[in-house]
Amino acid sequence: MTRILVVEDEQPIREMVRFALEKAGFDVQEAGDAEAALLALAARLPDLVLLDWMLPGMSGIELARRLRREEVTAQLPVILLTARADENDRVHGLDVGADDYVTKPFSPRELVARINAVLRRVQGAGGEGVVEIGGLRLDSASHRVEAGGEPLALAPTEFRLLRFFMTHPDRVYSREQLLDHVWGRSVFVEERTVDVHIRRLRKALSAAGCDRLVQTVRGAGYRFSARP
Q1: The domain containing residue 145 runs over which residues?
Q2: Higher-confidence residue: 98 or 86?
Q3: Buried (b) or exposed (e) across 167-190, using 16+ Cβ within 10 A?
Q4: Which residue, of 75, 96, 123, is where some domain finishes?
């Protein structure tokens, strides 16, 4: 059974979310703050974390950053829950490593749909095969990326984006096409989200000098190529 860790300090919201997720067939664990969440994660990793932005003590944003820094949780899917609906806030949430962003108030059906969409994307990134281009080596089976023999830490969305690029090199894709291929046609994602994840992917690749492989084609979209 798919296990979801719900990190939310408001008990009525936790109870509502738990009821909706259990009704949808998920195994749910709750945490009221970041400290309790870290203890739960240390005991057993869930399949996805549903994380409130505004938590007492360490905020949800800070916790998301920490999860992305730690090797054990770097690939863990994270969905942010927040009352902050401003576009800059959504972009900030994606920048720190969230895979999706749900604005309060939300319907239980929408929440379950978004969770299922993220889980489908994560599970769909595990096809067999090893691809090597421009000094990068991506192993889909082990979900690892290396540059010059050194491992690179990528969040789940960046891994899927890189995998698509590396299996379709030297071809330009628009933001809309990348959304269809990497996120899927049925998800609720804005085109600007692509730019956020491209920026995060380049940042992850820059440590190995491979950010140059992800190229912007002005007025058209993005291309992955070892050619200048």
Answers
A1: 130-224
A2: 98
A3: eeeeeebebeebbeebbeeebebe
A4: 123
